[in-house]
């Protein structure tokens, strides 16, 4: 199944109201072909599994907060609804390109190769051996600095993907791209590195003035500006982690562990190179040379030795120091060299400890992924079995694709994820679970807060925590039924997000309920009156009510109420439910909760 190019979005009344279409993918992304099964619709957002560009293997997608995601989505919705169109070109007149554009991909590969060679190896070597006095190396350094400056321009003209949980949104407005990159990307590092080339050019043009100052050298200043580019090592390490340090894949867990180990060795090699060049630079910038550590390496004076021999000696010195071996055949002679040795020991011990921990984590992750592979294989086996049956029944290819997409698509993933959340929430102690849900309903989600304030109006925060602790998580996948008309009522629900449709018999009607909302599809007033009557007689709520599967016709003599309508999930729903037995206890000790529930039901019925 191909990804959808747009989804329907409901725009607020303040923006004109109505339903519009919001594009989620770049224009060149192929849309679903005729005959393919339609994917699940969701407002503004889209399941990540249906986005077929490099969301998961490149650093051009950002995890954002719910509020930030809604801001980006609202701008797209307003634009699609006829609002002011966002500019698709920057102030430089350049277009914003998608992450899969050949130029963006090629540029990223070229800069990655430049970081792996120049930033990781050549830059520290040039600093250690003062190569900037050579005009050819100086010209090469300026050329690389210009490339790094252009990299900032390219990053501000590359569309991004913002992600919130299992939802993604394609952002291609220059304003939003710059905001997302500044907030979640490496904009600070890229900007500092981009300024190194203009600073070098300015120092080169002012070289006569700088050299005339006592104790100042233009070459040293140019070299110092070039050293700022070492900050790109942070970006390189992040990219290395995303390419190789990620979770091993289900199919090739062992191969990923090998890549993990190789990338770890590369990182240690880069760290060793930089520390070695640091020791060489300290030795070369001190005078006289006889006081430096190069003057006594295993009883030999290497101050006049070749660059290759000095570098090998520095590698030996740093390795022995970082491993805390300390043979004593080479040591720091000056105070600054002794401080460098202390820094090398600290960095070396930290790096070794991190490497051991990383390898252990990788092996444990591979073992967990082996268990995950068995679960995935079971789901795929179910899909193949059902597809074989469907083929035997001569069904269409589109139907078989829908069967496979259910077992491999976002619907099942949403159910598994929601069930995992529900299990984890149920394992929490009651007080802690209540405090967590109190933050959900009263602090962190503005769209849910009105529902929480309506249902728990007049209840103190402490009592509200105890009431919310009685809620259970009840996720519902699209296409599944929440309740059937005529069945004995057992729960009330709080719909945080999603959409339910009312069934007439087994056929869907036009009546829909979207979250957040209270879902109580039975006669709430009669049930509350029954609770007040039982409370007046001193009987426990439904104390000896005999459980039953369905209500008798009319339902008047039933000890429990009956559902008056059937509700079906039109979209993936995330609900909280409370059994009526618990709600009866809540209403008995907090009567205002019952009044609030009755008012909420009446308001929903008045709104239609």
UniProtKB/TrEMBL annotation:
Domain of life assignment: Eukaryota
InterPro entries in UniProt: cNMP-bd_dom_sf, K_chnl_dom, K_chnl_volt-dep_EAG/ELK/ERG, KAT/AKT
Region of interest called Disordered, as start-end residue ranges on this chain: 18-37
Cellular component annotations (GO), alphabetically ordered: monoatomic ion channel complex
GO molecular function: voltage-gated potassium channel activity
Membrane spanning residue stretches: 104-131, 137-157, 187-206, 218-238, 259-287, 307-327, 339-356
One Pfam match: Ion_trans_2
Keywords: Ion channel, Ion transport, Membrane, Potassium, Potassium channel, Potassium transport, Transmembrane, Transmembrane helix, Transport, Voltage-gated channel
Potassium channel domain residues: 303-363
Protein name: Voltage-gated potassium channel
Protein source organism: Raphidocelis subcapitata
